[in-house]
Amino acid sequence: MSETVVVVVPDADILASTVAARLVVKIIDAQAVHGTASVVLTGGRVAAKVLRSVRELPAAAAIDWSRVDLWWGDERFLPAGDPDRNETQAREALLDKLPLDPARVHAMPASDGPDGDDATAAATRYAAALAAAAVPGSTVPRFDVLMLGVGEDGHVASLFPGHPVLGETGPTAATFDSPKPPPTRVTLTVPTIQGADEVWLIAAGPDKATPIGTVLSGGDLPAAHAKGVRKTLWLLDEAAAGNRP
Ligand SMILES: O=C1O[C@H](COP(=O)(O)O)[C@@H](O)[C@H](O)[C@H]1O
User: Where do the Glucosamine/galactosamine-6-phosphate isomerase domain residues begin and end (predicted)?
Assistant: First the structure.
């Protein structure tokens, strides 16, 4: 039985530090159970703050970083190292400071990567990487926690309201004509997100209050489809939670 929990904290800084603390404990617990931990990272402003906060937590020393698999929920389809890539932001915020196993850092392809500027081929390549790590009976790996930011329009990953990518049923998809720049992206799909053990929706600031209020009142925005198998956790600051029922 899946549960939904809404946690509200005073502001964005406290949100980042509490999400970081949860993430560290989640990884430690997953490694205790499975030997490894599998985390899906998100992009956006609050995500970078969370990753920077992980660096400051003494408890992070209890993680064996060489046994953490990192995946991404979506990527802005730009050249490698572009500052707007979610991967670049995560590397600068945290990953470059950790003793990770490079083979376990599963960044989405860049637009100057093996598929060039073919975003559909890049999405297919990422689906193949997911399949290579898949648990039996699935096309994707076990995800202990899948983190998502929430856009002002209620988007999660690169799944935008009213966009055809929302209906994709494969594990990944290319998003074209994104209403938020850049226009071309690669994303996990709704069914893949819904396969994660826990989904955490993380948002801070008053610009997020309207979409979050809509979803928590039963409205149909992309964020409403982001649900974990065991748990869906909304992690909000007071400003983002301002319109919740
Ligand atoms: O473009 C994106 O935006 C969302 C939300 O970003 P934020 O800065 O408003 O928190 C993010 O979750 C997504 O991964 C990213 O590609």
Answer: 10-234
